[in-house]
Amino acid sequence: MTDRHQADALPRVTIYTDGACRGNPGPGGWGAWLVSGSHEKKLNGFEATTTNNRMELMAAIMALRELKRPCEVALWTDSEYLRRGITEWIHGWIKRGWKTASRAPVKNAELWRELHEETRRHRIEWHWVKGHSGHPGNECADALANEAIDRHQRARA
């Protein structure tokens, strides 16, 4: 590889995301584990009243927002709603003014807009993994999401 190609190469980052909700709606958390070479970062957050789908979206948004420059990203999620929404459905939603094929307003449209904006800076491959199947990255993201809920609930007790 020439020096020019090395300069053009984007940093590679693998991201594992997950959302959790106790009740739907109910208290929820999101978690993300970012790995690049020997560097890693774990993030999580909490919302008092939310849905699982919103937490799945927040995990991806917050993970991508954490990247300070454009990257080549492999993002792993156990949410087909997230993966298919951002890779397939969003194009139609945008063309239809954030309406579904049946002309209903897109649920969580404000989060989809945020996610779409965050994706524009990066080259992202979206991957699906079966949840709770022992996949280390997914298990870590799930633990981070649940830790955020647990931490908040302990603080309120």
TrEMBL record:
InterPro entries xrefs = RNase_H, RNaseH-like_sf, RNaseH_domain, RNaseH_sf, RNaseHI
| Compartmental location | Cytoplasm
Q: Which cofactor does it need?
A: Mg(2+)
- Bound how, and how many: what does the cofactor note say? Binds 1 Mg(2+) ion per subunit. May bind a second metal ion at a regulatory site, or after substrate binding.
Query: Which of UniProt's keywords are assigned here?
Result: Cytoplasm, Endonuclease, Hydrolase, Magnesium, Metal-binding, Nuclease
UniProt binding sites for Mg(2+) 2: 18, 142
Which enzyme class?
hydrolase
* Main localization of the protein described in the UniProt heading: cytoplasm
Residues that bind Mg(2+) 1: 18, 56, 78
* HAMAP family, sorted: RNase_H (MF_00042)
Family membership, please give it: Belongs to the RNase H family.
**Record protein name field:** Ribonuclease H
Q: Which gene is this protein's source?
A: rnhA
